[in-house]
Amino acid sequence: MGQQVDFGVFLPVTNNGWIISKTSPQFLPSFAHNREIAQLAERIGFSYIFSMAKWRGFGGDVEFWKYSIESMILMTGLAAAAPTLRLIASIAPALMHPAVFAKMASTMDDVANGRMGFNIVSAGNKGEYTQMGLWPENFEDYRYEYCEEWVTVVKRLWSENNVTMNGKYFTLDDCQSWPHPVQNLPPIVCATTSERGWQFVAQHCTAALFGGKDPKDQKHTSRKVKEVAARYGRSDVRTHTLINLIQGDSDSDAQRILKHYQDGADHEAIENVYRLRARGQSDARISQMRDRYESNVNRLFYAGIPFVGGPERVADMIEELAIDGDLDGFLFIFPDFIEGLMKFDAQVMPLLRRRGLRRLTPAFVPPATHAPAHAMM
Fold first, then answer.
1. Measured CA angle at 87 (ends 226, 101), to 5 deg
2. In this predicted structure, what is the pLDDT of residue 289?
3. In the prediction, which pLDDT does 1 show?
4. Domain CATH number, residue 219
5. Coil, strand or helix: which one is 307?
6. Domain count, the chain
């Protein structure tokens, strides 16, 4: 392969993971379950774990995502359980003042000994925020402008003695936030698929995270993110893509598993996901969502695209994306996370190693002093 890549796990902080089906594995989210997943991912050589922020579910027979645990507290708790992994927690700027977040993030980074990173949720499903009265009026129109000022405040508080500013959205008067993070500036990630989002990544983030409708789309997005970053004079922005892995012992076995999940599709929950996510979106975004939820396969998964195949096909798809798409990382979702990680380690990792796979980010070594940790994402 020759391409260095990082593997991560998209932790299941919600019930039943990402498959909207009555016949997929059914479980409730818990710290214990996520700790077991994190420790297994660490043992088999993964580089990072990632968790999302989710505040409301989508109903249906499976009560899709009715139950969720909070991202920042979870990742802080997992820091000691998996001492060599990078941990990426999610935060929605619309829900928290940047000075409050800056202090919390510095504390989290101290707990993790310089391994914490953060995913910026520029906007979520509107209903998650309106239920709390926290959706700013017309927020979709200016969310990236808001997030830019928010991130600027956070970074200044992480790196300056005190901050005074009169911004469009935030006013600070001799504001201080000590101590600063162990890493000085922890990695910041943003999940986005729009040109405006890629500009935000290029100006403020270390990596972009995205899904896609098919591998061609994923490769295009990876190259596009790096093209936009180059226009801003950056060659260090990394790209990571979501993968819903349906791995069987053979291609036919993987198709059998997928068919089992399709037979149990929770159509009410799928319709709710489409309807609630599309509310208030642009016509172009609604069209993208409609294409996804009219697909017989993709509609079954909340995010990312399914990789369905036996070990050889899965290894081929990873290699193709890494080389042709210049991808830096893969964020995996499994139907059953423990079983999925074990099968991936036993059947796919040996194939990738024989093809020349190398890990992009070295395993974490605790710093002797407050110094930058290995950059990842």
1. 90
2. 66
3. 46
4. 3.20.20.30
5. strand
6. 1
Q: For residue 92, is pLDDT > 80? A: yes
Q: Output Rg (C-alpha) for the chain, integer angstroms.
A: 20
pLDDT digits (tens, 9 = 90+) for 328-371: 999 999 999 999 999 999 999 999 999 888 888 877 776 655 54
Higher pLDDT, 47 or 376: 47
Q: 367 in a domain, yes or no?
A: no
* pLDDT at residue 372, rounded to an integer: 47
Question: How would you classify residue 322: left for phi > 0, otherwise alpha for psi between -120 and 50, otherwise beta?
Answer: alpha
Q: Which two structure tokens, joined as six digits, stand for 124? A: 């979520």
Whether residue 179 has a cis bond before it, omega within 30° of 0: yes
**373 belongs to a structural domain:** no
Where helices occur in 97-188 by DSSP H, the ranges are: 98-111, 126-130, 139-159
Full domain range(s) for residue 201: 4-359
DSSP state of 346: I
Interior angle at CA 112, CA 109 and CA 114, nearest 5: 60
Q: Is residue 239 a contact partner of residue 222, using CB atoms and an 8 Å limit?
A: yes
For residue 56, give both structure tokens. 């409301």
Instruction: Tell me the C-alpha to C-alpha distance, in Å, between residue 266 and each of 12, 207, 255, 269, 297.
Output: 19, 33, 19, 5, 13
- Reading phi first (left if > 0) and then psi (alpha if -120 to 50, else beta), residue 89 is in beta
